[in-house]
Write a structure and sequence with these properties.
Blueprint (H helix, E strand, L loop, with lengths): L1 H16 L1 H8 L5 H13 L11 H31 L6 H4 L2 H29 L4 H11 L5 H29 L12 E4 L16 H7 L4 E3 L8 H19 L4 E6 L1 H12 L6 E7 L7 H9 L2 H17 L7 H6 L3 H7 L10 E7 L15 H8 L16 E5 L25 H14 L3
Parallel strand pairs: 1-2, 1-3, 3-4, 4-5, 5-6
Helix pairs in contact: 1-3, 1-4, 1-6, 4-6, 4-8, 7-8, 10-11
């Protein structure tokens, strides 16, 4: 039914676009006024089926996709019709000899189709969260290349329709289980970021994950520690933060979910600073528990002078952004294999706190996103299978370990595990992964 309605709408737009010549061909003009009025309605609401979608953004986004479908249909028919008119295949012999008539008809056709196209493309460009800058640039560049621009337009439509389906399904799923509060754990969640990032109200390190957890009943706090410090220094900040949360809320303990270096920071705090008594569980995500061999290699090969310049530039920039005392080299050193070996006796490794770890792997460099995929081949040479930064053998720790591999060719990168790019892709739903992870903590009574 949807295809039939889309085809009828395309034919209607075609009729309005080519009304000047169709008027002569049919000998009637009475149909043109209602056709124009209906086409205006289509430009505003191209499909009433989209009203069933759960959010206004998705409805307008689906309308944009629908307009582009209609544009492709009406343009295809219009091109065939106009060419047939120009070469004299239509029963308008006297008119085919008058080039001015077909020039005017073609101009009206182009204007009408342009309105339909821009109405659709602007909606998806403005409202889509999955196209990203890359596809916006590809669309803009290829839009000037005949034939190629149609192929790119079809790809854009496919990506948008996939986004609509995924987001609407997720909305319905959350709506159906809203009353269950499956992520309402006994103790609140503390999300601990990794190295070279900060917790920010403007750009959440964890992407869409916190919002998804909160929709399902979770209470969330953040580490709010510096972006680059040694493991001991970061641990002190986290210990202070955890004690602050417990004192202010009376929650007693927290469930920690820590990404990358954050896992080492938490283990150090629990072992050396007495933080463990305030921790109900610790889940590490892609944490290099045994360090990274490729980091040792880089520090050995890069001259000390060059290392100092990089470190000074980073420390200066991060100090401007809020870090009180950033230390680039200390953070990097503690992530090396040799650095982690020195730290091992100071990292929590007991059974009093429920502990688990998660890791993921890319399948090739192109599977990840810039810039966290650039080191994949180097890491693979030294550390084997990896997520672009950390080798698979370094992930496992605690009472439970799971390695996540996505179906297909893509794989799951270090950044994908925190929804860094806010990207939907086949084989792994990062938001639902965290929902189920926290649901499991709740079922354990944590």
């Amino acid at each position: 039914m949807k295809i039939i309605l889309r085809l009828l709408a395309g034919i209607l737009i075609f009729g309005v676009a080519n009304g000047n010549s169709l008027r002569v061909l049919t000998g009637h003009t009475i149909w043109l006024v209602p056709a124009v009025l209906l086409s205006i309605v289509i430009q505003i609401i191209p499909s009433y089926a989209n009203r069933k979608l759960k959010t206004r953004r998705l409805r307008f986004l689906a309308d944009g996709s629908e307009l582009l479908h209609i544009f492709l249909i009406s343009t295809s028919i219009s091109v065939i019709y106009q060419v047939a008119g120009w070469i004299g295949l239509l029963p308008l012999k006297s008119l085919t000899e008058d080039w001015r008539f077909w020039l005017l008809s073609g101009g009206i056709c182009i204007l009408t189709e342009a309105v339909t196209f821009w109405n659709g493309i602007l909606r998806i460009y403005v409202l889509s969260e999955q196209l990203g800058i890359k596809w916006l640039v590809i669309g803009a560049i290829c839009g000037m290349i005949p034939v190629i621009h149609l192929l790119v337009l079809i790809l854009l439509i496919q990506k948008v329709e996939s986004e609509i389906m995924v987001e609407n399904t997720k909305w319905i799923e959350n709506e159906e289980r809203e009353q269950q509060k499956i992520c309402q754990t006994k103790y609140p969640l503390l999300l601990v970021h990794g190295v070279f990032f900060r917790d920010s109200a403007l750009l959440n390190y964890w992407g869409r994950i916190p919002g998804e957890l909160e929709k399902n009943g979770a209470t969330i706090y953040y580490g709010n520690h510096g972006s680059a410090s040694s493991v001991p220094d970061s641990a002190k900040e986290l210990d202070k933060r955890i004690r602050e949360i417990v004192q202010q809320t009376g929650c007693g303990k927290v469930n920690i979910i820590a990404h990358s270096k954050g896992g080492l920071d938490c283990r150090y705090a629990m072992a050396e600073l007495g933080t463990g008594k305030f921790v109900a569980s610790l889940t590490t995500i892609n944490t290099p528990h045994r360090g990274c061999q490729f980091a040792d290699y880089l520090l050995d090969k890069i001259p000390d002078g060059q290392q100092k310049k990089i470190a000074d530039a980073y420390n200066h920039a991060l100090h401007k952004l809020g870090d009180t005392d950033p230390d680039f080299m200390a953070a990097v050193t503690d992530l090396t294999e040799s650095g982690c070996q020195k730290l091992q006796e100071h990292l929590y490794d007991g059974d009093e706190v429920y502990s688990q770890s998660v890791g993921s792997c890319l399948k090739h460099p192109a599977g990840g996103r810039f810039p966290l995929n650039l080191s994949y081949l180097l890491v693979k040479y030294f550390d084997g299978e990896n997520d672009g930064l950390v080798g698979e053998e370094s992930f496992a720790w605690g009472q439970k370990y799971q390695l996540i591999r996505a179906r297909g060719r893509r794989g799951i990168s270090h950044g994908d595990m925190i929804d860094l790019n806010r990207e939907n892709f086949r084989g792994f739903d990062v938001r639902e992964f965290y929902v189920q992870l926290v649901k499991d903590l709740k079922e354990k009574g944590l």
